Amino acid sequence: xxxxxxxxxxxxxxxxxxxxxxxxxxxxxxxxxxxxxxxxxxxxxxxxxxxxxxxxxxxxxxxxxxxxxxxxxxxxxxxxxxxxxxxxxxxxxxxxxxxxxxxxxxxxxxxxxxxxxxxxxxxxxxxxxxxxxxxxxxxxxxxxxxxxxxxxxxxxxxxxxxxxxxxxxxxxxxxxxxxxxxxxxxxxxxxxxxxxxxxxxxxxxxxxxxxx
Length: 212
Description:
Mean pLDDT: 92
Shape: globular
Strand content: 25-35%
Structural class: alpha+beta
Strand order of the largest sheet: 1-2-3-4-5-7-6
Largest sheet: 7 strands, mixed
Protein name: GNAT family N-acetyltransferase
Low-confidence stretches: 1-6
Pfam families: Acetyltransf_1
Number of helices: 8
Distance between the termini: 35 Å
Domain N-acetyltransferase: 68-187
């Protein structure tokens, strides 16, 4: 895709009306994600898919309510990609609020809720300090793959990071080599290998570039 075509896309904050479509995009993108397959383990495909829908819906709603960065990539008025960054200004991991735990417990079960909190705690332990965020979700709609939009979506996330005076960087857990390569092209560096549950991946980190 040439630059003139890419320029037709814009990255802006999601509105409440965008959340349902954003959840659908994330569901399709993370359907076969190794972490969710492991964390939401179920021999019943329908049960797994119900858990995944619940996990994504509750997390999106929580991030929205806590005024975290929900970034949408739009082609005109059409939402084609989503990136969600959460900062440590809100409790993560073992510090998650009780109402988040309750909703996740009802939607996904105890073991799955524990697995998600453990993942966050493991990531936080490797981040440089508490002034760092986590890229919780990043995804393109299925029919938007292969257009170079992944780069634009990652760039939207790092540009947002650069604009936050109190944020020193963002981390992301990747399990696929193609995703790792994409992030590294945008100045993410590896902080090391992580094993979360039965899933092995890389924790990548982008250091924000703030004006002096």
